[in-house]
C-alpha cells in the first residue's frame, strides 16, 4: 500500500489563509458572474479545513467546516447545477382586461 504524501502545515495554513477569504470576498461581489465562483473556491478550500481539523483535533471547528461545506455545496447547486429556464428569468404577463375590478 502506498502512503499518501501529507501536506505540510505551511501549505495547509497558506491555503486556508488564501482560499477562505477569497471565497467570502467573491460571495459578496456585485455581479453574479463573480458570486457564482465563490462556491467553487470555497469547496476547493474544504479539504484543507478537514485536514487541519484532523491534525489539530479541534472538533468544534470541524462542525463549522461541515456546515460551510454544505453551504458551498448549496451554492454549487444554485449557481452551476440547477436547471434554469432557457430565457433567463421567466415572466408571466396578464392582459389588461384580466385585472380584477
- Tally of structural domains: 1
Major beta-sheet overview: none
The low-confidence parts are none
Compute the number of strand runs: 0
Please, how many helices?
A: 3
Order of helices and strands: HHH
Tell me the strand percentage band: under 5%
Q: Taking Cα atoms only, what radius of gyration do you get, to the nearest Å? A: 20 Å
Q: Structural class, from helix and strand content?
A: mainly alpha
Rounded mean pLDDT score = 89
**Outline, from the CA principal axes?**
elongated
Please give a structural write-up.
It is a single chain. This protein has 101 residues and is mainly alpha-helical. The protein has one domain. It is built from 3 helices and no strands. It has helices at 9-27, 32-56, 59-81. Helix 2 (32-56) packs antiparallel against helix 3 (59-81). The longest helix is centred in the middle third of the chain and has 25 residues, at 32-56. The chain crosses the membrane at residues 60-82. Keywords: Membrane, Transmembrane, Transmembrane helix.
